[in-house]
Write a structure and sequence with these properties.
heterodimer; A: alpha/beta; Rossmann fold; six-stranded parallel β-sheet; 18% strand; elongated; B: mainly alpha; ABC transporter involved in vitamin B12 uptake, BtuC; two-stranded antiparallel sheet; two-stranded antiparallel ribbon; 6 strands; globular
Chain lengths: 322, 352
Amino acid sequence: MAILKKLALGAGLAALLTTAAHADLTGKVIGFSQIGSESGWRAAETSVTKSEAEKRGIDLKFADAQQKQENQIKAIRGFIAQGVDAILVAPVVATGWDEVLTEAKEANIPVVLLDRGIEASQDLYLTSVASDQVKEGRVAGDWLVGTVADKTCNVVELQGTVGSSPAINRKQGFEEALAGHDNLKIIRSQTGDFTRSKGKEVMEGFLKAEDGGKNICAVYAHNDDMAVGAIQAIKDAGLKPGSDILVVSIDGVPDIFSAMVAGEANATVELTPNMAGPAYDSLDAFLNGGTVPEKFIITESKLYTPADDPQGEYDRRKGLGY
Amino acid sequence: MTRPTAELRPSSSPPAAPARPVLAFLARPQFLALGVVLLVNWLLFPGFFDITWKDGRLFGSLIDVLNRGAPVAILAIGMTAVIATKGVDLSVGAVMAIAGATAAVMVTSGQPAILAVAVALGVGLLCGLWNGLLVTALEIQPIIATLVLMVAGRGLAQLITEGTIVTFTDPLLIFIGTGSALGLPTPVLLALGLMVLTTLIVRRSALGLLIEAVGVNRSAARFAGISAGVLLVLVYTFAGFCAALSGLIVAGDIRGADANNAGLWLELDAILAVVIGGTSLMGGRFSIPMSVVGAMIIQAMNTGILISGFSPEFNLVVKSGVIILILVLQSPMSASLFQRRIRAVKSEGGQP
């Protein structure tokens, strides 16, 4: 370990001598307080954060908070005591962070927030890396608007958990995209709690209520899991998902890509699990060059359709732990 | 929320002639509530009672209610036995997740489906046995004893699936969740079969009576020569079995085991179904068929909310409102009012 550190130091010095002040994060110790593993996406985020750290030679200290803020606060205090170089936090809730983040600030340890924001003074953290959920909804809506052109299209919406911020924002973004296109109308909207089984159950109800599905031209699901459930419900009703009823959703989990391969899903907007990449980049720039990054780094919301090699995307994601 | 109340009156007069025992049976508040909920669904969505024949099975909203209600109905069958002994089993939702996860992981790793199903059911029995032993051998209060597995069980299921949704294409598991036979979905047949079988077993033997005796007074039952401990272990084990069966259905339905969400909060729906069915949480007299009716009331309500077109923010408010209404309807006070009314109508001439 000591030899490694010396080597890294040497490498760092050499880099410092040759290319002015730009070294990398090799040998740096970074603590990562993760919320837990409540969803496949979260598991993928954890594995990407670890693999990105490995790629950069970072010594990542991982702490799973099991959905509890008190565990996260304990973990952060632990990181401070160990004197890590930086801390990554995926905050489980928005409030109650001031005290522990002040402690980190006093210890001169930069903190980067991943994937969720918090309600605290902005100078308590270096930057936050997150997706723009409203934009995700808008990208999905824009795709649908472009695909149906001027045909009349009745859309049913499977919302996420009532009151959760992705549900509110993804709904808002989708509605923004549809505004001004009178041929597209959201005729039914219900919550499927972000789960497959509820997505299937709600879609069954929609299909019955809308003339066996003949009235529905597209389904918009706030996440891929509900879309996968809806696809099964559409098939059970004797219709073809993907052609009789268009399916568009958000997240980009492996199973939606295998549905695309089967021609049963039409589009998904990726919520990248790689929040750590931009976080490491900004830490690199900050620790090695003193560049203060932007306060809010927004990840790309990339649209995937069957034209984007769904089989390849499926294979690429399968091992990430989704 | 005004609608169900408004509908209550006209439909509470039809069961006016409880001359025959069947009619008296159907005049129970639970059937009344089910009727009202279905009627409201029909008002909200006129095609509610339409049933067609599609791909070799019946197809329609009413079938959906039966199909979607089946997992909770099966849970409620096990839960009824537990509650009749003055206990409660909070772990059934987590046991569902464990059973689904076990079966899914086994078939994806190449084991034969029949073995996967057997092991999953066996795991359910073991979970129930664990609960039963905590309650009897260690004398831990049921609500706490089963809380242990409720919390730990979901974690166990997540360990089995490694936090991912394990999807499978095994035809047997999919058949359990979404197949059909005799024109009815498999889950409905399983629930129906289990209900009939269990009712026959507890009512055609002394078992039901013994369970009620333990529920009313455990020590008294023991002094009367009933081996209360064995009986308690038996009912918790049975509840574990029911939960595992339900877990297989839920996993088969989405062709995957979702350890995070499978059966989440369903223990509460199952308890509610039992209570709506008229079994007292204080133990004693119980009815398995009525608990199944309770599960159907809950599901009819859920389906009604889905097709009503209300915005989802209202879901829980509507649901709780209807539940309060049902509980008031079957409270002792309203029951006596109800009886008096029937008697009054009867004495007026007792016409149909």
